[in-house]
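Let us work through a complete example step by step.
Step 1: write down the sequence.
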Amino acid sequence: MIEGTSELFEAELVLPDTRLVEQAKRLIGFTRRFDRMRQDLRLLMDYEGLKKWSEKHYKHPLPLLDALKDRYPLVIFHGDVGNGKTATAEAMCSALAKEFKKEAMLFKLSTRVRGSGEVGEMSTLINQAFGIVVKQQEKRGSHFSLSTRAIR
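Step 2: predict the structure and record it as tokens.
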């Protein structure tokens, strides 16, 4: 745990993680879902791969790459409670880290970010969580993921 983050994060995992690899094996239909999403996720996450592709086919980086360079990828899963959104997201993050052969970090938000009900408290806590993730990304130069359960 990073100092001072225990109230914001339920878990912080270095990826790829063997527990998440095993979890993916138990998820019905995970491989099929991941295969359908893999290309889209690679486009969101693999700036260096896109740059190499652009240089190979166009002999220079395409201007579109500038728009992708500073973006944080965001994927939103939706559905009923208990249908495996969180488990699928975590397993996909681990699978991508393994596929890219890069260390990544998964920060799993705690339900405590809901706060105690004060106006603006939840937004403040979520902003603090994102601030921690961004600082860690800058510090380590790794890919990071922020995972949360549905907040109602």
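Step 3: interpret the result. The first helix runs from residue 18 to 26.
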